[in-house]
Specification:
Layout lengths: L9 H7 L16 E8 L6 H7 L7 E7 L11 E7 L6 H15 L4 E5 L4 H4 L3 E3 L2 H4 L13 E2 L6 H13 L4 E6 L1 H16 L5 E6 L17 H22 L3 E6 L6 H10 L3 E2 L2 H6 L4 H17 L5 E6 L2 H4 L1 H16 L1 H5 L4 H11 L2 H9 L2 H6 L17 H18 L9 E6 L10 H19 L5 E6 L9 E6 L4 E6 L2 E6 L9 H15 L15 H4 L4 H6 L6
Parallel strand pairs: 3-4, 3-6, 3-7, 7-8, 8-13, 9-11, 9-12, 10-11
Antiparallel strand pairs: 1-2, 2-14, 4-5, 13-14, 15-16
């Protein structure tokens, strides 16, 4: 059951009255648009392999909606299920609200059901009906607490069979999966399975992840990224102001983003830190951990000579996986842990497990692991997430950097090359941004994504991701449609096996956002040009309340003020 209604703050009460803006083409309702199908598509890579895995959903055409009489979709009442999958992101409730309103606009007898606790709710047949009365208290709020989320993947024959049987037993006409790249890969697996079984149940995905790595030219942004980066930028700006007042600490801030550095880049564009590490650049330059430490140490020494024994460094959560030598080690660890799961379970202590793993690694990688601080090497041994990835959010990279920088500065002090003071404070901002009250951009965007998903489902499209584009324009001018999930697929190694997954979007080093950072970061390094964004604004002029991310603005050729 949904969380019991809590006391409502003044902001939540006022925000609950906010009515998101729909793209103009959807305003009259689902009965006034029809899908227009484009050319057949192909996956971004590994076309032959992806086609073999998804023979029934591969090659679907892109969908755009055009004005037309489509009253036929209003004749029969339908039942649609929705599931929230993966980590929370601001705006999830508005996706559900958009689906509900789209369904009810088409036919008041249409019903929406929320599967509880993520995809496991489908397998376990746990759900509730989401009515307008129930939805009322959750509109424009953060969190996923209406139906909660989960990280279960529906992939085994038994799980797929159970999901199919439950969807049929509950007379579902469609399922909407709200999730990131892994969750929407799973949505594609379910869509393919149902098609293969001859079951006419549509499966539609909605792009969600604050990490910002589920995007391409058709999916310009994943929802929640705007709100989360504004929250993190406020926190970083607050630290900058405190640091600029006290002038005696170096702050190392690790920001969420396991597989891409989009969050760190966006927060840097908003706040102008003294140093920012971008994982994709580290990988491109094949930097070692030692080179990164030396680079930061040089900056600290240079600022100390100018009388500035303070500064701020932004570090992406997944940095350690972008360092080539560490990336190679983690990849080998993933394989060793996957291949020896049974043997490792028989060992009692972490030390025994570490010795066992070291014996299975190539000598070069075993030596590298032994050279790491004990805490970091132990963190690399922790259990993987459900997708087989090392849980980099548990690896305190910022503390590793501080420890290594302290050692390097001590060496320089002995050589008479450093006379400054180095006092460091570390921070990790992750969960603080996942359930924030959605910004006006995310409130509008998620509502449009949900409403659009409902229209795709009503038109019996399956294997598609809800797409809302032209996002730097006003919300009423956004374009809507559907993108085939297989179009975004490639093959990657997961848990020691080659598997189809939606390709992650990394920071483009030739893209305008990174080029902007590269142009100004040397100035930010030595001169203090900090920006203090302050909290998200919900009321006031549109240029304050409706502005989207600097990343998106730069990507679409706009200039920053």
């Amino acid at each position: 059951m949904p969380t019991k209604k809590c006391a409502c703050s003044e902001l939540q009460a006022a925000r609950g009255k906010f009515q998101p803006t729909l793209p103009t083409i959807l305003k009259k309702g689902p009965a006034f648009v029809k899908p227009k199908f484009g050319k057949a598509t192909k996956s971004v890579a590994d076309q032959n392999t992806v086609k073999k895995i998804f023979p029934h959903t591969y090659g679907l055409p892109e969908v755009t909606f055009v004005k037309a009489n489509n009253a036929a979709i209003t004749k029969k009442a339908v039942r649609v299920g929705v599931v929230l999958s993966g980590g929370q992101a601001p705006g999830g409730h508005n996706v559900i609200g958009g689906i509900l309103d789209g369904l009810k606009k088409a036919n008041s007898k249409n019903k929406l059901f929320g599967f509880l606790g993520g995809p496991s709710g489908i397998v376990d047949n746990k759900f509730i009906e989401i009515t307008p009365a129930l939805m009322k208290d959750y509109r424009n709020t953060g969190g996923f607490d209406l139906i909660q989320s989960g990280r279960t993947k529906i992939e085994t024959p038994q799980q797929l069979e159970a999901a199919k049987n439950n969807l049929i037993a509950n007379k579902m006409d469609a399922l909407v999966v709200v999730g990131g790249d892994d969750s929407n890969t799973n949505a594609c697996v379910i869509a393919e399975y149902l098609k293969q079984q001859g079951i006419a149940i549509s499966v539609i995905g909605v792009p969600k992840t604050i990490d910002g790595d589920l995007k391409n030219k058709h999916i310009e942004a994943s929802f929640g990224f705007d709100t989360a980066t504004k929250i993190y930028a406020e926190l970083v700006g607050n630290i900058e102001r405190d640091m600029n007042s006290a002038r005696k600490y170096w702050h190392f801030v690790r920001l969420m983003g396991r597989s891409a550095s989009h969050i760190t880049l966006e927060v840097a564009l908003k706040t102008h830190p003294n140093a920012v590490l971008v994982g994709e650049e580290v990988l491109s330059k094949k930097m070692t951990l030692g080179q990164i430490v030396n680079q930061l140490t040089d900056l600290i020494v240079k600022r100390a000579k100018a009388g500035k024994n303070y500064g701020i460094v932004l570090v992406p959560e997944g940095l350690i996986e972008f360092i080539p030598e560490m990336k190679e080690l983690i990849s080998a660890l993933n394989d060793v842990l996957a291949d020896n799961e049974t043997a490792l379970k028989k060992l009692n202590t972490l030390a025994e497990k570490k010795d066992f793993v070291l014996s299975k690694l190539p000598k070069k990688l075993a030596d590298l692991m032994r050279s790491l601080p004990a805490g970091i090497s132990s963190q690399l041994m922790l259990d993987r997430d459900p997708h087989g990835n090392v849980q980099v959010s548990l690896i305190e990279t910022e503390k590793l950097l501080v420890e290594m920088i302290k050692n390097r500065l001590a060496e320089l002090k002995k050589q008479g090359k450093y006379t400054g003071k180095f006092s460091a404070l570390t921070h990790f901002f992750g969960y603080e941004g996942r359930c924030g009250v959605p910004s006006t951009f995310d409130a509008n965007y998620t509502y449009a994504l949900g409403y659009n998903a409902a229209v795709l489902a009503l038109n019996k499209c399956t294997g598609y991701l809800s797409s809302v584009r032209k996002l730097t324009k006003k919300a009423q001018d956004w374009e809507v449609g559907g993108i085939p999930l297989t179009m975004m697929m490639n093959i990657e190694r997961r848990k020691g096996k080659e598997k189809p997954v939606i390709k992650k979007a990394l920071v483009e080093l030739k893209g305008e956002p990174f080029k902007y950072l590269a142009k100004y970061r040397n100035v930010w390094a030595e001169q203090d040009q900090f920006v203090f964004p302050g909290p998200i604004q919900f009321f006031g002029p549109a240029e304050v309340t409706d502005v989207t991310t600097y990343t998106l603005l730069l990507e679409q050729g706009k200039k920053l003020k």
